[in-house]
Amino acid sequence: MKYKNIIFLDFDGTVTCEETLSGAMLRVIPASVMADYSEKLRKKEISLTETLHMAFDTMDSEKLGIMLDYYSKVPLRAHFGEFLDLARELGIPVVLLSGGLEPFVEATIKPYRDKFLDVYYVKVDTSGGKIKLISDHEGDGYLLMKDEVMKNYDYEHAIAVGDGITDIAMAHASDLVFARDHLAKALTEAGEDFVPWEDFGDIIAELKKRFE
Q1: How many CB atoms lie within 10 A of CB 206?
Q2: What is the pLDDT of residues 152-203, one digit of tens each?
């Protein structure tokens, strides 16, 4: 099916008010180890994908419960539900693209699950007692290559909503970009156009202006 407009939506730090994946990791990984990972990432000695595999592949699966408890307490960004309702009213499907883990994403979006066209995330295999990360779209240093997933859809115009560096490729592949935080900084430095936003109320207002 070909869509006139389609929204590709980030999850971590976009739908949620915190960078939830790193927040969850801090609950089960010593701060000194996290600091070491962060320093190696900053120096580009390891990729984000390598970092996450190193962190989770040796982690006991029972720690998923601790991280899920953390996720259950993280608030969603304001007006998220209204945003999904408006997108449906406007006939614009929403695809969630997350580099986060399946149990975390699914638990968080459960009340809104039927409002998405599709949801993508990293799957988890705990059959061996450890947390093995499985992604059908891993590559280029990311667990989920969002711009590659976008190619699965036929559309005239793509709308991207994101906040982080993992959303840059998604933004470059889109016609309209809503950006905040690290993504906004990267696009500003690159001299690229975007619509700034703080919560989904800002996006709702802009979508109404453009598409109602």
Answers
A1: 16
A2: 999 999 999 999 999 999 999 999 999 999 999 999 999 999 999 999 999 9
What crossing angle do the helices spanning 102-109 and 63-71 adopt, rounded to 10°?
Answer: 30
| Identity of residue 26 | L
What is the 3-class SS of the chain, one letter each residue? CEEEEEEEEECCCCCECCCHHHHHHHHHCCHHHHHHHHHHHHCCCCCHHHHHHHHHCCCECCHHHHHHHHHCCCCECCCHHHHHHHHHHCCCCEEEEEEEEHHHHHHHHHHHHHHCCEEEEEEEECCCCECEEECCCCECCECCCHHHHHCCCEEEEEEEEECCHHHHHHHHCCCEEEECHHHHHHHHHCCCCCEECCCHHHHHHHHHHHHC
pLDDT of the residue at 176:
98
The pLDDT-based confidence of 145 (bands split at 50, 70, 90) is very high
> 47 φ, ψ to 5°?
-90, 170
Cα angle 133, 138, 139; round to 5: 135
